[in-house]
């Protein structure tokens, strides 16, 4: 609310950008406040009714801890964090009135949900005469900027990546702004973090997550530093082997914006130059999926290839539950699900095997798998999750061909040949030293394989043959 008598007050509205580094909105708000000898408050508003679907359980756990860490980081800069819950329009308007706020600043949202939030916020702020200043963003490049020669969005990754890496390199990241002053108490009322009820209580299933992760910007930096000093050099050759700690594990930090992709790009190039490109190419998939989501907002439920809406999916909840619980009798699939249960994360190679098993061996809808991972992954992402599920299923952009059906045993033999990963997560599947792949019939406490892969493959190919591309 603009009143010339009140001291200048800028509000930073946070969403999926829970950091202080490379944060255009926070930097600009502090600049404005310094210029006007005023103050800055940050606000996070949890409006679940506005979400297209509620956050999954693992994401809620992450969000709680990420907000706790962010409150401390902001406090160091002299910016209090106010938490609110409920209707975004009402809450934002109330915060602006209570704090006599002159301007609301946010990093521009690039997912359909965040853009919807921005439209709602503008509606709420207009009658108050308070502008919403949206700049920057959470991607390396604006999603409508990378287009083919004929002005269309890319549907194939390789040319997209070529265009991005050669012609649209991300802007340099901004440093964390200097503190505005010592920590101050908020002049706007807010809720406690506990009252947002983001954590699981009965039962508290998050013990494994607590052991595995440090949500927040400091955790992201620690993860990034460890990766830059260690695995990045062997990333290209080892990233497919789930027993190796060869990938960055940065995905949940990127998902919640604790690390910006611009900072990531900059840090990798500064330390490793062109040797970092195999890694950045994978980060390019994140960008690609977000650009796809921008063009196809229904990507989480609707196949990008329309003929797949007629695919003869099966409807077997009992088999789906065996898959979810890691009881398929295929150790590599079950190990992936157990890793997910315990840590909220699964190695990328194993995600592909597990997903292929659901859609091709079991012939169950990819949307079920997408929903399952949405609930259980700490990095559950509105773009990467459906993008990858559509890719594995053969119905997405630049998707794996449907006739390429992963053989779980061969995948295990190739990428976990000594069974280290499988034994770690499914110790009952074989005694140490057993041949994991031959031991199926002698296993005691572990289920027999729930299907014959060869027969399942034939069934999947027959189902595919029933589809004709839409004219
Ligand atoms: P690294 O190999 O270190 O890669 C660095 C970053 O690049 C990742 O953090 C991620 O942001 C990005 N990236 C890497 N591979 C991919 C990819 N294939 N697609 C998109 N971005 C990628 N990733 C998510 O972030 N959220 C999801 O919800 C998600 N769901 C998936 C579901 C399925 C079925 C599959 C097959 C993959 C999914 N992925 C998802 C992609 C990928 O598995 C994870 O990004 C990766 O395993 C995260 O681990 P990392 O950070 O160590 O990756």
TrEMBL record:
Cofactor note: Binds 1 FAD per subunit.
Keywords per UniProt: Chromophore, FAD, Flavoprotein, Lyase
GO BP, one annotated term: response to light stimulus
Keyword match Acyltransferase: no
Family matches, as SUPFAM superfamilies: Cryptochrome/photolyase FAD-binding domain (SSF48173), Cryptochrome/photolyase, N-terminal domain (SSF52425)
Single annotated GO MF: FAD binding
Photolyase/cryptochrome alpha/beta domain mapped to chain residues: 8-140
PROSITE patterns in the record: DNA_PHOTOLYASES_1_2, PHR_CRY_ALPHA_BETA
Marked site (Electron transfer via tryptophanyl radical) residue numbers: 313, 366, 389
Residues at which FAD binds: 235, 247-251, 279
The keyword Flavoprotein appears for this protein: yes
Reported cofactor(s): (6R)-5,10-methylene-5,6,7,8-tetrahydrofolate; FAD
InterPro entries registered for this protein in UniProt: Crypto/Photolyase_FAD-like_sf (IPR036134), Crypto/Photolyase_N_sf (IPR036155), Cryptochr/Photolyase_FAD-bd (IPR005101), Cryptochrome/DNA_photolyase_1 (IPR002081), DNA_photolyase_1_CS_C (IPR018394), DNA_photolyase_N (IPR006050), Rossmann-like_a/b/a_fold (IPR014729)
Family: Belongs to the DNA photolyase family.
PANTHER family named in the record: CRYPTOCHROME (PTHR11455), CRYPTOCHROME CIRCADIAN CLOCK 5 ISOFORM X1 (PTHR11455:SF9)
Protein name: Deoxyribodipyrimidine photo-lyase type I
């Amino acid at each position: 609310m603009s009143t010339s008598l009140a001291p200048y007050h800028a509000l930073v509205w946070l969403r999926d950008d829970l950091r202080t580094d490379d944060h255009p909105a926070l930097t600009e708000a502090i600049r404005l406040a310094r210029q006007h000898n005023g103050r800055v408050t940050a606000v996070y508003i949890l409006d679940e009714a506005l979400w297209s679907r509620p956050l999954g359980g693992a994401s809620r756990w992450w969000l709680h801890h990420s907000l706790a860490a962010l409150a401390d980081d902001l406090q160091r800069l002299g910016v209090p964090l106010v938490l609110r819950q409920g209707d975004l329009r009402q809450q934002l308007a109330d915060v602006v009135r209570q704090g006599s706020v002159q301007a609301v600043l946010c990093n521009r949202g690039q997912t359909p949900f965040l853009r919807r939030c921005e439209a709602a916020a503008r509606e709420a702020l207009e009658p108050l005469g308070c502008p919403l200043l949206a700049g920057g963003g959470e991607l390396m490049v604006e999603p409508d900027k990378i287009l083919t020669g004929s002005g269309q969005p890319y549907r194939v990754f390789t040319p997209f990546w070529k265009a991005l890496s050669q012609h649209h390199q991300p802007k340099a990241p901004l440093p964390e702004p200097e503190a505005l002053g010592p920590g101050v108490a908020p002049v706007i009322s807010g809720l406690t973090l506990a009252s947002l009820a983001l954590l699981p209580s009965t039962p508290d299933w998050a013990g494994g997550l607590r052991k595995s992760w440090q949500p927040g910007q400091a955790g992201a930096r620690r993860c990034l530093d460890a990766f830059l000093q260690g695995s990045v050099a062997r990333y290209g050759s080892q990233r497919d082997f789930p027993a190796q700690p060869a990938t960055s594990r940065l995905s949940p930090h990127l998902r919640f914006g604790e690390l910006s992709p611009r900072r990531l790009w900059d840090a990798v190039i500064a330390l490793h130059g062109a040797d970092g490109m195999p890694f950045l190419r994978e980060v390019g998939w994140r960008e690609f999926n977000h650009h796809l989501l921008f063009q196809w907002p229904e990507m989480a439920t609707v196949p990008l290839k329309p003929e797949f809406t007629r695919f003869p999916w099966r409807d077997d909840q009992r088999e789906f539950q065996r898959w979810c619980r890691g009881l398929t009798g295929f150790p590599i699939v079950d190990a992936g699900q157990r890793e997910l249960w315990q840590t909220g994360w699964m190695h990328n190679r194993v995600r592909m095997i597990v997903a292929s098993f659901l859609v091709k061996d079991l012939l169950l809808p990819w949307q079920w798998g997408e929903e399952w991972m949405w609930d259980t992954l700490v990095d559950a992402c509105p773009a990467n999750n459906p993008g990858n599920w559509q890719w594995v299923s053969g119905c997405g952009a630049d998707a794996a061909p449907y006739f390429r059906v992963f053989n779980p045993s061969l995948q295990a033999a190739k990428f976990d040949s000594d069974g280290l990963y499988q034994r770690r997560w499914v110790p009952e599947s074989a005694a140490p030293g057993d041949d994991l792949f031959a031991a199926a019939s002698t296993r005691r406490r572990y289920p027999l394989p729930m299907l014959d892969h060869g027969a399942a493959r034939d069934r999947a190919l027959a189902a595919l043959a029933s589809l004709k591309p839409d004219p």
